[in-house]
Amino acid sequence: MSNMRNEHPTGTVFVLVHGAWHSSWQWAPTQRALAGLGALSLAVDLPGHGFDAPTPSGYYAPGQPGLATEKSALAGLTLEECAGAVVSALRLVRGHRKVVLVSHSAGGVSASLAAEQAPELVDELIHLSSVVPAGRPRFADYMEAPEQAATTRGQGLMVGDPEAIGAFRINPLSADPEYAEELRQGYYHDVPAGSFGRWRHALSPDLPFAIPTTPVTLTRERWGRIPRTFIRCAEDWALTPAVQDLMIAEADAAMPDQPFTVRTLPGSHSPFAARPAELAAALVGT
After folding, report:
1. Beta bridge partners of 140
2. Are 257 and 226 within 8 A, CB to CB?
3. What total of structural domains would you count in the chain?
4. What is the largest CA-CA distance in the chain?
5. What residues does the AB hydrolase-1 domain cover (predicted)?
6. Residue range of the domain that includes 230
7. What is the CATH number of the domain that holds 195?
8. pLDDT (0 to 100) of residue 152
């Protein structure tokens, strides 16, 4: 079966990697739109996300006891494991003529490392307002940049000490309306408040500590040889346009062989929720 698949390749397939606290199912509206454009897609659940995501023991209990202090079940999860999940997904679709690896937000860290490890499995990279650790090795390096701090929102969302609990924890189930609105403003501000609840409740509370803090080494010979596109989100308050532009410029300076093609979408950090049809069109380049 494997040989037949490689001898008779099909068309383009998009491998979709979600960002922090998200999962494969947030891509569903975009996948429907991609299907309408004749494109295949596979959405990945990174370790610690999706239906198998562990939650703190008091997360669903009244008052959420221990939420700010309980050690995360993801504390020992490594970036290598996350990148390995992406490589496994890429191997599943290797029989297609063109494989496009799409990453959103923090998913850019795992996707970039996967592409560095297995560039032969990727024909194009698309970063959807996602981290590009080519100029600076850690996601945290860009989150601490002045370009990020200037207009970012959602800084008061973290629960507990990330280093102590082993995760960057948020509380999507918070009963505090101000907290919920801060979460919406930071990540989904162009999704109506009335429908945001469903998106909010689909989030997981823990992002493994390793993802923002582990250095990634990308090389010109491997990651740098893959054609790449960056889709900017013009009113993004989670990963600001200024820091998106900084990542693009620094990646192009470090890896000049395949400079970014840049496209821009209007709106927030989450176009898969606010404008999935426009996002699908941008992915296929129409």
Report:
1. none
2. no
3. 1
4. 57
5. 14-282
6. 2-284
7. 3.40.50.1820
8. 59
Q: 67-71, 91-95, 110-114, 163-167: lowest mean pLDDT where? A: 91-95
Residue 9 has pLDDT above 60, yes or no: no
Residue 285 token pair: 């380049």
Q: Which residues contact 235 (CB under 8 A, 6 or more apart)?
A: 189, 190, 241, 266, 267, 268
Q: Cα–Cα distance between 99 and 131 in angstroms, integer?
A: 20
Q: What angle do CA 60, 65, 69 make, to 5 degrees?
A: 115
Cα(92)–Cα(13) distance, rounded to whole angstroms? 11
SS (H, E, C) the chain: CHHHHHHCCCCEEEEEECCCCCCHHHHHHHHHHHHHCCCEEEEECCCCCHHHCCCCCCCCCCCCCCCCCCCCCCCCCCHHHHHHHHHHHHHHCCCCCEEEEEEECCHHHHHHHHHHHCHHHCCEEEEECCCCCCCCCCHHHHHCCHHHHCCCCCHHHCCCCHHHHCEEECCCCCCCHHHHHHHHHHHCCCCCHHHHHHHHHCCCCEEECHHHHCCCCCCCCCHHHCCEEEEEECCCCCCCHHHHHHHHHHHHHHCCCCCCEEEEECCCCCHHHHCHHHHHHHHHCC
pLDDT digits (tens, 9 = 90+) for 259-283: 999 999 999 999 999 999 999 999 9
pLDDT band per the 50, 70, 90 thresholds, residue 154: low
Model confidence over 232-251: pLDDT tens digits?
999 999 999 999 999 999 99
